[in-house]
Design brief:
Oligomer: homodimer
Distance between the termini of chain A: 21 Å
Radius of gyration of chain A: 20 Å
CATH class of the largest domain in chain A: Alpha Beta
Shape of chain A: globular
Number of domains of chain A: 2
Structural class of chain A: alpha+beta
Number of strands of chain A: 10
């Protein structure tokens, strides 16, 4: 099953866990110094050496726009790769969409494993296994002293970034989020919007990750991040408890959100994200009882603009999407 | 069954029809010139001559506040009688609450018959029958030249007022209501709020009635009013058609209203009236399909502050009412 439809541990606060390795092929210039020929040779290597029955290779410029954006919505590729131009870029991806390798994004290879909920250890294990398999087929740019060499110095070392997507409506509603984010910044944790660097928080979703990877082992990075996440979970749960105990006005807000989500006939993506966040919170607190977490997973993905069009198999204008979005929501919730 | 729970003709626009006769007892001063003794003798006459198994007599100051206000909410008594002080006032009322006689309001007797929907002829017939029965037992103040004598000159003549409660969301939303009300004023029709003179419109409800009764027969008054109502119905339906054809935004508004009404946990009376109006419109236009008009009738009455407390058999603070209101709504809608 697609990773984003499954439920993982601590899924009331942690939506997903992601591990990615930045890797470059030995003796080929880094992407920012590559000419077209170099880039094409990276693509050829990736396709020939790494593609298989389980891991299919696609050039991004062979895909239609909706498919590409829906891959961003599912966190399989970064929005950056679309922004920078998709010529000479590619992706290897498995059926469950939890393993993907971006080709010629910032580095030659960005190996990514994503899991539902908080699963740093298991996700790292799977990512290391992928990395190892690949290293048998491709010779990486590696330096004994610095470790894996990458385009951006912050990735040098393990080349790993571990990130966790958090749903923090409690901290947001109690206005404690600002302070929490400040503290994280100070202790070497990046906080970003829903689609990574330079993107906004949507529906109270925040992505946190390790800032640097040099000088630390993968296990140390994971452990640090896990400690931070556990602290945030406690704070988020306290904030929710506080809101819950404040009484009926809070419950009222969440129940109204459900009422609107389940009955509206036209809805923007932005409003939808907000309402889903409230409904998810209502479910996690036991206030809303007739919606399963599985339905929230479906809502979270199939109401996104491109995934909605993929799901319906139709190309839609924005207004059409706003209407069809409500039909899809009704269908999922019924 | 209580009149307000039944459905009458044209109930998509006309909520109810009311006929009342202002009558005074011969040889007793009008209410505004009565001393306490006179008022008590009016009460005695009313109780002794008019009360029966089917028409029970109550002194208003023997009732609790909630019961009195719920009678206003059901349009069985006027809010005026409560405002002016309830000493020396009474009511005769039947089980279905469609026949009631206020004692010592502006006149000694205010005989009132109320029906669901547009039923001017039948309601008049029943009111005349009541009036005739009463006239066999009580001698009215009557003048050959002027007709029935009443406290207020506008009631002299037949002493009749015919009124119709209209639900006009279409004209309100299209901002045509002002013009319609202006025209009515010019042709001798009063427009008032939901509880009569000096009250506000709530939930797009407007009460219209004949201005004077002198020089016209009851049948003429009814006929005039009926003509006006039929014209308003056409205009209201045109406005609704216009809104409906404007498309999805209008449907969205009505469906969201249903979603909020059915799911909120706390709601003021004012917001509730607004949402019920939208939901009723949605039902009448076939946009909202899972709510019967009978449920709207129930919502319309049992969400009102005093009737809510009567229904639950509890005395509640305003905040408690706002919460219990939502429980009652859920119960009715489920």
């Amino acid at each position: 099953m697609s990773w984003y439809l499954t439920n993982g541990p601590e899924s009331d606060v942690v939506v997903s866990t992601r591990i990615r390795f930045a890797r470059n092929i030995k003796d080929i210039n880094f992407v920012n110094k590559c000419n077209n020929e170099d880039l094409e040779s990276v693509l050829s290597v990736a396709k020939e050496k790494l593609s298989s029955k389980d891991l299919k290779f696609y050039r991004l410029n062979d895909m239609d726009d909706i498919t590409r954006i829906s891959l961003v919505e599912k966190h399989c590729i970064s929005p950056d790769i679309l922004r920078k131009g998709i010529d000479n870029t590619g992706i290897l991806i498995n059926d469950d969409e939890n393993i993907s390798i971006m080709v010629n994004e910032e580095d030659h290879l960005r190996i990514q494993v994503i899991s539902s909920g908080l699963q740093l250890d298991d996700t790292l294990k799977l990512a290391c296994k992928c990395d190892e398999e690949i290293s048998k087929k491709i010779k990486y740019a590696y330096n004994e002293k610095y470790g894996y060499l990458t385009s951006c110095p912050t990735n040098v070392g393990t080349g790993m970034r571990a990130s966790v997507m958090l749903h923090l409506p409690g901290l947001t509603m109690t206005r404690r989020i600002g302070k929490v984010l400040d503290v994280m910044n100070k202790i070497g944790i990046n906080v970003r919007g829903i689609y990574g660097e330079g993107t906004d928080s949507q529906g109270n979703m925040y992505q946190i990750s390790n800032k640097v990877s040099l000088g630390l082992t993968c296990e140390e990075i994971i452990q640090n991040l896990n400690t931070v996440v556990e602290k945030i979970i406690i704070q988020e749960c306290n904030a929710r408890k506080y809101l819950f105990e404040k009484g009926i006005d809070f419950e009222d807000r969440l129940c109204r959100a459900y009422g609107i989500l389940a009955n509206a006939r036209k809805m923007s993506s932005k409003e939808c994200n907000k309402l889903i966040s409230d409904v998810k919170l209502g479910i996690d607190l036991g206030i809303i009882k007739n919606v399963t977490p599985e339905k929230i997973n479906k809502l979270n993905i199939y109401t996104k603009s491109a995934s909605l069009q993929k799901y319906l198999g139709e190309v839609l204008t924005e207004e059409e999407r706003d209407i069809k979005r409500c039909e899809v929501i009704k269908n999922i919730l019924k």
